[in-house]
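hey can u check if this looks right to u? its 315 residues, i copy pasted from the old doc so theres a chance i mangled smth
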Amino acid sequence: MRRFAFAAFIFALASNASAQSSTSIPRTPDGHPDFGGVWANEFRTTLERPPNATSLLVSREEAQRLFDEGLKARPDMSLNYGLPDPSFLAKVRGEFRSSQVTQPETGRLPYTPAARASLAASLATGTDSHDQRPWPERCIGGVSLTPLLVATENNLRRFVQTPDLLMIHSEQFGDTRIVGIDRPRRTGALPSEMGQSVGRWEGDTLLVETAAFSSQRPVRAVHAIAGSRLVVGTGSRVVERFTLTAPDEILYQFTVEDPAVYSATWSAEYPMHRSSERMFEFACHEGNYALVNILKGAREGDRRAVVTQTKGAKP
């Protein structure tokens, strides 16, 4: 009898804690979790697992070591990020993560050999024209496309939510994405780099399925430190899950499948935290001197090559 009473007591405590956690999050007038507000990614965990990490879950000491070694490889990255934890790695369910990728267990994107070769060829950039330079150099964004990528700077996103729409606007490059909630998928819609996103509620989790991607920008830069690249092609299907795990935290999870690019379906997750910071215009084009100077430098290199060749030519 005592054992039964004790078990009932524990069950009541667990039920009460669960009820409190589900009711403590902000909700919209129609009862769904309210994602409205500005959210930030306050970590430097890379999409893929770095070579010097051996597992997904790491201790605090291991997390600090990974960051220190990454900083040595990139001395131009400043320590003064003002982040809440000195390790600078993401914490999911209280555990430090060495990568955003959770499946496969290697923490690496499972490209097919053909896709890997094609990716390497596509990353070879030229300097004959601005069209040959990478998208970020041309102030064309990507961090609010599907799936949502983690930016190393200017990483604020604004979520605006209505009963049938979710808008996601990025501070970097100003991308804006619209997700229809509980709406039928449009037939005959033209493919786009954003794809067509349709959401539905599964309990307190907003599940968003996106397809119909165009071929305009399949290769997307993910992380400046790790140099990872993510491919989302015309045959890709991305499933995202947004869950409010606390009033000020979203657990963002996504799965990507595309047999033409990946040998297996892969998944990733990371947290977003509510921010009180204001969002400002990115204004990338107004200060984009790099692209002009890259092309000027290339033309100067061409000129010097011609001069050297001319001087070395025999009369």
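The radius of gyration is 23 Å.
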